[in-house]
Amino acid sequence: MMMLHSSGTFSISAGIQTPSVDSADKRLEQINRVVSSPVLQGSEALCNLLKFLARQSIAAPDVSIKEYQIATEVFGRPANFDPRVDSAVRVQMSRLRAKLGEYYNTVGRGDRILVEIPKGSHTVIFTDREAARTTELRPAEDASEVPPTVVRPKAAPWKWDSVALMVVALLALAAGLCGVWNKSPALSRAASENAAKPGDPLSQFWQGFLQSSEEPLVVFSRDVVFLGSPSENLSLRELSLGREFRFQTMTQPPRAGDLGIVNRHPLAGEQPVYFGSRDLPITEDYAVVEMITGSAPAQSILTLAGTTTFGTQGAVEFLCDEERVRQLLPHVQAGAGHLAPFTALLHVKVQRGVPVDTTLAALRRLTPP
Fold first, then answer.
1. Cα separation values, 293 from 129, 224, 297, Å
2. Assign residue 77 a region: left if phi > 0, alpha if psi is -120 to 50, beta otherwise?
3. Is the pLDDT of residue 22 over 80?
4. What is the Cα–Cα distance from 269 to 305, expressed in whole angstroms?
5. How, if at all, do strands 300-306 and 225-227 pair?
6. Nearest-CA neighbor of 259 among 231, 294, 292, 297?
7. Cβ–Cβ contacts within 10 Å for residue 246, how many?
8. What is the 3-state secondary structure (H, E, C) of 218-279?
9. Cα(31)–Cα(36) distance, rounded to whole angstroms?
10. Are the C-beta atoms of residues 273 and 230 closer than 8 Å to each other?
11. What are the extents of the domains in the chain?
12. Is 344 helix (H, G, I), strand (E, B) or coil?
């Protein structure tokens, strides 16, 4: 087996020999091509992540890059970052691998240098695709007959310990929605009657998402219901969110490096910034529920986000609790069974890793931007 050297011919990755790229400059030039492409356009966090991993991999190819290092140096997580609680790095690594696959299947199909990040690793592997193809040819085989290398997006390295809390949140929301639909006859007929059962707060709140003849979509980081903050779900930055409560990583003491929720227009008795627990174990968190009007007529976009996964889960459970929604409805109803755009700040109490109580801390009705 051959070792990786800057002037060598082959490098070893998972027991497979792959031709290496001659110079660091060429590798960095390829990284710049990728981050400047339309595939990563607007994905600032992914671009920063790829550039960081590339520089580290080139400077010290034999040194393993740790999740903690990425979290603190790239994503601004605090020194007490715990990967068991915060899955931001794993989520972004999965997205980055998918984007690299998309790039090499489209605009980068003809690029000479292949950039890969193997599953379970944070090290960037650079391969000279032409050299690799040449070394794999049999003596009687012509290079022109060899099909071009196609890199397909790789599936995320799912691990139960990294996604268990988010699965709980998704299941809670799905179960809550199903419960609302099944126990409310009026809501099941909403597609034709466009009316909810009087006095049923869950029906009144959720009818806008469930009255379609098709099943609603509840997807992480996609179209209708978003789970997670804009600090992790980058697509949320394209929406008109955060006019009242904005997620922001603090740069000043005493909570420098911590993710907080900035109250942009504090009212009497409200704090300017809200933080979850500073140290482990987490005993409290804050979350934001925000509903805005989408681009399509009568379309609503709902986001539920905490500063940690516990806050997000607490927000999900809040909107699936009949009594909590009953208290919320009078403040957000716009008449004729519709809800006005709003944003709400929630306080989430956590015990032994489980949100046990979520209460309304602040509420704003939103006007069109």
1. 47, 11, 8
2. beta
3. no
4. 23
5. parallel
6. 231
7. 16
8. CCCCCCCEEECCCCCCHHHHHCCCCCCEEEEECCCCCCCCCEEEEECCCCCCCCCEECCCCC
9. 9
10. no
11. 10-145, 160-365
12. strand
| Amino acid (1-letter code) at residue 51 | K
Most confident of 14-23, 63-72, 178-187, 304-313: 63-72
**Backbone Cα Rg of the chain:** 24
Which string of DSSP letters, residue by residue, matches 140-174? T--GGGSPPP--PPPPP---HHHHHHHHHHHHHHH
Enter the pTM of the model.
Answer: 0.46
SS3 72: helix
Would you say 27 and 113 are in contact if contact means Cβ atoms under 8 Å apart?
A: yes
| CA 172 – CA 164 distance, rounded (Å) | 12
User: How far is the CA of 198 from the CAs of 210, 211, 213, 336, 337, in angstroms?
Assistant: 16, 16, 21, 12, 10
What is d(CA 128, CA 115) in angstroms, rounded to the nearest whole number?
9
- How far is it, in rounded angstroms, from Cα 6 to Cα 27? 11
DSSP β-bridge partners for residue 18 = 11
Q: How many residues does the chain have?
A: 369
Residue 359 carries which side chain, given as an amino acid letter?
T
